[in-house]
Every structure is written in structure tokens, then in C-alpha cells.
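Q: Got a minute? One more chain.
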Amino acid sequence: MATMQSVIDTARLDLNDDDKVRHTDTTLLLFANNYLQEVSKNRPDLYFPDDPPESSLALGATFPLSDKFIRPCADYVIGRANLRGTEESRIDVAAAYMQMSATTSGVR
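A: Always. Here it is, folded:
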């Protein structure tokens, strides 16, 4: 079973932040939990063990959706990370990743 850490690790590949210098696990985990909350509101057809996911899941927690949602969640995390207002932030990149996340999650 995939974990929340799997999502964060997937996001780090595109963020080019393997050494965790620009983004902490805590920040990226917050974004991943935000994704789960948003998708639970916009996709009531999806089953969540804790429906809706009110509490934040820890890094070691099992990812509560099918593995096909790992990439859309990672894309959401990447988009949010690119909106942080840092020197490396890019609004165009953020928008592209957020759109990919919404499209592949079935949220328009």
C-alpha cells in the first residue's frame, strides 16, 4: 500500500528537491492533506475510510485512495509548492500542475 510519503517523494522528483532544502516534508504533507480534503468535497463518489478526511494524515499513513490518485495528488502538491512566493516560484508552472491535478482527479 502506498503511503503519504509516497506522494511527497513523487512530488519531490518534479520539484528537484531530493535533499529537502526548498520544501520541508511538513509543508508538502500539508499540501497533500489539502488535496485529500478538496477531492473529498468535489468527488463525493470516492470512498474515504475517514469520510471526509477531517484530520491530517501523517507521512507514514496509508494513502486513502486508489494508487491512481497518487500522481494527481503529487501534481497538486507541486502546484501549491510553486505558489509559495519563493525565488524559485513560478505561477505558470503552478497553474499547469494544478490543472493536471484537477483533470486527472476528475475535478473540473
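A: The mean pLDDT is 89.
Q: Perfect, thanks.
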